[in-house]
Design brief:
- Helices cover about 0% and strands about 45% of the residues.
- The chain has one domain: Jelly Rolls, CATH 2.60.120.
- The strands form 3 sheets. The protein has a 6-stranded antiparallel beta sheet with strand order 1-2-3-10-5-8, with no helix packed on it. Strands 7-6-9 form a 3-stranded antiparallel beta sheet, with no helix packed on it.
- The chain starts with 10 loop residues before the first strand and ends in a 13-residue tail after the last strand.
- The chain is an all-beta fold.
């Protein structure tokens, strides 16, 4: 199946300061790729989490900090975050403007886990 799909704007979700849009994934017929677009408000962050697949995050605008492997990595627009499978990470907006990111995942649907290994149920389709 081939398709051209509209790219919806991220909408607020029940995680403080986070807006999300799933651009493509399992519901679109894919089994090995998911694409998410997110906006993180100034001072907000994703919860610490990991996935059952590799993830690459492109920073489109804003400034942030990646917490991964016990280390802190600052980043900004035109940066690429490389997040191997099962590595716990957290993305924080450290700037004064929204942090705009695009996440590509090597699986669909994307299973997400908390630092304790328990499954996190996300408030959006993956």
């Amino acid at each position: 199946m081939h398709a051209v799909i509209d790219q919806p704007r991220p909408q607020p979700v029940p995680l403080p300061g986070l807006a999300h849009a799933t651009w493509v994934g399992h519901d679109d017929g894919l089994s090995q790729l998911s694409l998410w677009r997110q906006t993180i408000a100034p001072g907000a962050a994703t919860p610490p989490h990991s996935h059952d697949c590799d993830e690459v995050v492109l920073c489109l605008s804003g400034e942030g900090e990646l917490l991964a492997d016990g280390r802190s990595h600052r980043f900004g627009a035109r940066s690429t975050l490389v997040l191997p499978r099962s590595g716990t990470h957290q993305i924080l907006n450290t700037g004064t403007a929204p942090l705009e990111i695009l996440g590509a995942f090597g699986g669909s649907p994307v299973a997400t886990f908390g630092p304790d290994g328990g499954r996190l149920e996300l408030p959006w389709r993956s």
